[in-house]
């Protein structure tokens, strides 16, 4: 492994660790004490913790280890190393949290506030994991197995499982807990999608100008990006124009916009948000 790949791996696993610890805090501090059960392994663990002899953290550990074994048996080398790492770290983290920081009751007396944190923290963590090609393990492993061996609609199947877990919370606990759990189930996907979109948000520039050279030099030399240029003609006065197309991260977009406004005030600029850019310098390019 060369130095660049090693450095990238260190950064990736540091991000994986931080994201997993955020997940552990969200689940252990806010989800477990309030018995919120909106799907996934931790949702099953909350219900089993009420009905069985072990704690939710212990059930999470047992279920995740069983699912990891299932993954290795049915997926072999296709089974993601990152998913294994996150799944093990989550299970161990929850078990250690129960041992080192036992919680006999919810952190506050505001269940709505705690529900918000129980949704946002794990969803934020999941969004980071998905964004770098990992997952939290658990029921995602079942989805990977089903995807490989069946033609099921995986998204629908997982949603139905989560819905069943949430529905069960209404009978195992009480109506209030069940309703809170349904709220969490309906909200978490929206939060994950929003976080992923904001993490990847870029600005797509269409710049129409007469003197493109200073702008292109600023893009390539100062911002370290590239651009595509082509000649065009104005429809009204039929003057010769140059169109510059480029994509920037948000911080760079502010610099480019200000530069164009200062140095080419007659330029026409159209800036569009985009959260899915694939290519060199962005996603999907090694």
- The averaged pLDDT comes out at 83
Instruction: Report the biggest beta sheet as strand number plus sense, adding barrel if it closes.
Output: 4 strands, antiparallel
Order the strands across the largest sheet as they lie in space.
2-3-1-4
H/E order of the elements?
Answer: HHHHHHHHEHEEHE
Estimated helix fraction? 55-70%
Structural class: alpha+beta
Describe the structure.
The protein has 286 residues and is of the alpha+beta class. It has ten helices and four strands. It has helices at 3-31, 40-51, 56-75, 81-100, 111-131, 139-149, 154-172, 175-199, 213-222, 250-263; strands at 202-209, 228-233, 240-249, 268-274. A four-stranded antiparallel β-sheet has the order 2-3-1-4. Strand 2 and strand 3 (240-249) form a beta hairpin. Helix 3 (56-75) packs parallel to helix 6. It is elongated and about 80 Å long. It starts with a helix and ends in a 12-residue tail after the last strand.
Write the layout of secondary structure elements.
Blueprint: H1 3-31, H2 40-51, H3 56-75, H4 81-100, H5 111-131, H6 139-149, H7 154-172, H8 175-199, E1 202-209, H9 213-222, E2 228-233, E3 240-249, H10 250-263, E4 268-274
Antiparallel strand pairs: 1-3, 1-4, 2-3
List keywords for this structure.
alpha+beta; 286 residues; 63% helix; single chain; elongated; 4-stranded antiparallel sheet
In short:
This protein is of the alpha+beta class. It has helices at residues 3-31, 40-51, 56-75, 81-100, 111-131, 139-149, 154-172, 175-199, 213-222, 250-263; strands spanning 202-209, 228-233, 240-249, 268-274. It contains 10 helices and 4 strands.
